[in-house]
């Protein structure tokens, strides 16, 4: 158990809908990351927050957004969903930032868009 | 930009065989290098890491040495077990631009047969 908690574990929704994925980082970790894992794209970095502020953006679509709250939990919002958004979404956390910083992953949220 | 290239597999070995999974990288700065492992139905777990050239990361019988001259971080294990069957991801973290999100390779599916 990494200490990173993600909900829900599985989600099935229809095209055009909006969903919210939730993440609780490890106790004390200030940095939260979101990743998308799909068969064709592999593991893609989406976005990083540090202590409530956006720190870095990766391959995140404009239809997606995220935030980190004062209690450090984070939410990833996915809207106008398309079939191609079906994937495993990982949240990860780390104590701070910096190269060499160990990043701990949750078990992921499986999103299926039908 | 940053990138990681690794053999995709599947790699099928017999129990007690020697394992090598090749990983090479391209980075603009001075990256840290990681191997993560994903067991079926689970999230990613950090296996080992190295933060500077010539460092050797090791864990659970696995080893990898950070070779700057060949931009490589090959994963090795002297005698694999059935329980090592999983997907292995090579990744790097590079602080250039202020972001330390991980860049992953596509993963290598390892199958160990009894």
Task: Describe the protein in words.
- The complex is a heterodimer of chains A (114) and B (114).
- Chain A has 114 residues and is mostly beta strands.
- Helix content of chain A is 0%, strand content 53%.
- In chain B, strands 2, 5, 6, 10, 11 and 12 form a six-stranded mixed beta sheet that branches.
- Chains A and B meet through strand 5 and strand 10 of A and strand 6 and strand 11 of B.
Q: Any idea what the radius of gyration of chain B is?
A: 14 Å
Strand content of chain B: over 45%
Measure the end-to-end span of chain A: 31 Å
Structural class from helices and strands of chain B? mainly beta
Q: Helix content range of the residues of chain B, please? A: under 10%
What is the number of helices of chain A? Answer: 0
Largest sheet: number of strands, sense, barrel closure of chain B:
6 strands, mixed
* Most extensive protein-chain contact, per-chain counts: A-B, 25 and 27 residues
Low-confidence stretches of chain A: none
Structure class of chain A: mainly beta
How is the main sheet of chain A built? Answer: 7 strands, mixed
Roughly what percent helix of chain A?
under 10%
Using DSSP, what is the number of strands of chain B?
12
Give me the Rg of chain A, rounded: 13 Å
Strand content of chain A: over 45%
Order of helices and strands of chain A: EEEEEEEEEEE
Précis, in short:
Chain A is an all-beta fold and 114 residues long. Chain A is 0% helix and 53% strand. Chain B is an all-beta fold and 114 residues long.
Could you list some keywords that capture this structure?
heterodimer; A: 114 residues; mainly beta; seven-stranded mixed sheet; four-stranded antiparallel sheet; globular; B: 114 residues; six-stranded mixed sheet
Helix-strand blueprint:
The complex is a heterodimer of chains A (114) and B (114).
Chain A: E1 5-7, E2 10-13, E3 19-24, E4 31-38, E5 42-50, E6 53-57, E7 64-68, E8 74-78, E9 87-94, E10 104-105, E11 109-113
Parallel strand pairs in A: 2-11
Antiparallel strand pairs in A: 1-3, 3-8, 4-5, 4-9, 5-6, 7-8, 9-10, 9-11
Chain B: E1 3-6, E2 11-14, E3 19-21, E4 23-26, E5 32-38, E6 44-50, E7 56-59, E8 62-65, E9 75-77, E10 86-93, E11 103-104, E12 108-113
Parallel strand pairs in B: 2-12
Antiparallel strand pairs in B: 1-4, 3-9, 5-6, 5-10, 7-8, 8-9, 10-11, 10-12
């Amino acid at each position: 158990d990494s200490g990173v908690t993600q909900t829900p574990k599985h989600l099935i929704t229809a095209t055009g809908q909006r969903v919210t994925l939730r993440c609780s980082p490890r106790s004390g970790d200030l940095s939260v990351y979101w990743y998308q894992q799909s068969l064709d794209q592999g593991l893609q970095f989406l976005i990083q927050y540090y202590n409530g502020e956006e720190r870095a953006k990766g391959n995140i679509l404009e239809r997606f957004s995220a935030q980190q709250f004062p209690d450090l939990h984070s939410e990833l919002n996915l809207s106008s969903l398309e079939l191609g958004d079906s994937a495993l979404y990982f949240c990860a956390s780390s104590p701070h930032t910096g190269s060499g910083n160990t990043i701990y992953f949750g078990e992921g949220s499986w999103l299926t868009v039908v | 930009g940053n990138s990681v290239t690794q053999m995709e597999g599947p790699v099928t070995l017999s129990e007690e065989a020697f394992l090598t999974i090749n990983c090479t990288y391209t980075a603009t700065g001075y990256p840290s290098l990681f191997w993560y492992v994903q067991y079926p139905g689970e999230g990613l777990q950090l296996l080992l890491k190295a933060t500077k050239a010539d460092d050797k990361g090791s864990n659970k019988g696995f080893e990898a040495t950070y070779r700057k001259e060949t931009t490589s971080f090959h994963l090795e294990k002297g005698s694999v077990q059935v329980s090592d069957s999983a997907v292995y991801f090579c990744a790097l973290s590079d602080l250039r631009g202020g972001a330390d999100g991980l860049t992953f390779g596509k993963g290598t599916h390892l199958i160990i047969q009894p």
